[in-house]
Write a structure and sequence with these properties.
This protein has 202 residues and is an all-alpha fold. Helices cover 76% and strands 2% of the residues. It has eight helices and two strands.
C-alpha cells in the first residue's frame, strides 16, 4: 500500500470532522443541507422507488459480505495476510463501533431509528476503502476510487430518496468508515512489526 504516512492524518481528520458534524446535528431533525438534498432528489428522480432501491443495493449485507470475503481470499492466495485481516477486521470494527457507540452517542433520530452516522454508509464505505487500499498504486487505485465514488453517490441518492437517511448521516458515515479503516491498518501494521523477529547480531 502506498501513502502509508498519510493514514494517520487522514484518520484523525476524518474522525474530527465526523465528531464536529455529529455534534451539530445531535438530537436534531434535518439541517438546511439535508432539506436541500431531499428537494433535489425528489425533483430529479421523483418517486421512482424501483430505481432508488436499485441504487441502495450495494449497501446490502448479501452484496458486501461476498465482496469482502472474496477480497480476503484473494489476499490469502497472494500471501498478503495482513491485507486479508484488514479486509475483514476493518469493516467489522467500523460497523460495530458505529452501531453500539456512535449512534447512541449522537442520538439523532429519523422516524423510529438512530440515524447518525448512517450504518448503510459505514458498511459500504469501509469495504470500498479497503478495496482502494488493496489496489495496486497508480491506475488501479484511481479506477477503484472513481468507481467507489460513483457507487457512493448513487447510494446517497437512493437513501435520501427512500427516506432512509439525511445527507449529513451519509457524510458522517463516510468519514467514520474511512477513519476506522485507516486506523485499523495502522494498528495491524504496528502489531505485525512488533511480532516480526529481530535480526540476530551473531
Amino acid at each position: 500500500m502506498s501513502g502509508r504516512g498519510l493514514f494517520g492524518p487522514v484518520a484523525v481528520t476524518c474522525a474530527a470532522i465526523m465528531v464536529v458534524l455529529g455534534s451539530l446535528v445531535s438530537g436534531e431533525g434535518p439541517s438546511v443541507p439535508d432539506d436541500l438534498a431531499v428537494r433535489w432528489v425528489e425533483r430529479t428522480f421523483g418517486r421512482d422507488t424501483d430505481l432508488l432501491r436499485l441504487l441502495v443495493l450495494p449497501t446490502e449485507a448479501y452484496v458486501l459480505i461476498p465482496v469482502a470475503v472474496l477480497a480476503a481470499v484473494l489476499c490469502l492466495i497472494g500471501r498478503r495476510r495482513l491485507e486479508a485481516a484488514l479486509t475483514i477486521v476493518g469493516p467489522l470494527i467500523a460497523i460495530l463501533a458505529n452501531t453500539w457507540v456512535l449512534k447512541p452517542l449522537f442520538d439523532r433520530w429519523k422516524y423510529t431509528y438512530l440515524a447518525y452516522p448512517s450504518g448503510h454508509t459505514v458498511a459500504l464505505v469501509a469495504v470500498l476503502t479497503v478495496l482502494v487500499l488493496l489496489a495496486r498504486p497508480g491506475v488501479a487505485t484511481a479506477v477503484m476510487a472513481t468507481v467507489g465514488a460513483v457507487v457512493l453517490c448513487g447510494v446517497t441518492i437512493g437513501m435520501i430518496g427512500l427516506g432512509y437517511h439525511y445527507l449529513t448521516d451519509v457524510v458522517g458515515g463516510t468519514l467514520f468508515a474511512v477513519a476506522t479503516v485507516c486506523a485499523t491498518w495502522m494498528l495491524l501494521s504496528w502489531a505485525a512489526r512488533r511480532r516480526a523477529p529481530v535480526p540476530s547480531d551473531g
